[in-house]
Design goal:
Length: about 100
C-alpha cells in the first residue's frame, strides 16, 4: 500500500495539490490532467476541483492513501498562478500559451 503526504497551496479563490510529474506518469494519469493545473519544472500543482481528485483516486485505487499538509496559504494571489499551465507533452519550463494570465 502506498501512503503519501502532499502539500496544498491556496489563495482566497482557489487551491492546488503539489505532486511530482513523474508520479503522474507512474499512476498513468499524466494525460488526463487539465490546463487548469500548473507546472513548475518537475512539480505539478493539481487544480482542486477535478485534477487533484484524479490523483487521489489513482493513489487510492490500489489501497493507498494521501495525507495533506499546508504548503502555502496566500492572502493574495498565489505564486502558483504565475507558473506555466499544465500540458503533459510540453517539456518542463517551456512557456505554454494556452491562455493569458494577468500579472498584477
Amino acid at each position: 500500500m502506498k501512503t503519501v503526504t502532499r502539500e496544498w497551496y491556496s489563495d482566497p479563490a482557489h487551491s492546488w495539490l503539489k505532486v511530482k510529474y513523474a508520479e503522474l506518469v507512474e499512476l498513468g494519469i499524466h494525460e488526463e490532467i487539465s490546463s487548469y493545473s500548473y507546472r513548475n519544472g518537475d512539480d505539478v500543482y493539481l487544480e482542486e476541483d477535478c485534477d487533484a481528485l484524479k490523483y487521489i483516486n489513482a493513489v487510492n485505487k490500489d489501497g493507498g492513501a494521501v495525507y495533506f499538509r499546508l504548503g502555502h496559504d496566500a492572502l493574495r494571489e498565489s505564486p502558483v498562478r504565475k507558473f506555466d499551465c499544465y500540458c503533459f507533452d510540453m517539456p518542463a519550463g517551456e512557456l505554454i500559451d494556452s491562455w493569458t494570465r494577468e500579472v498584477a
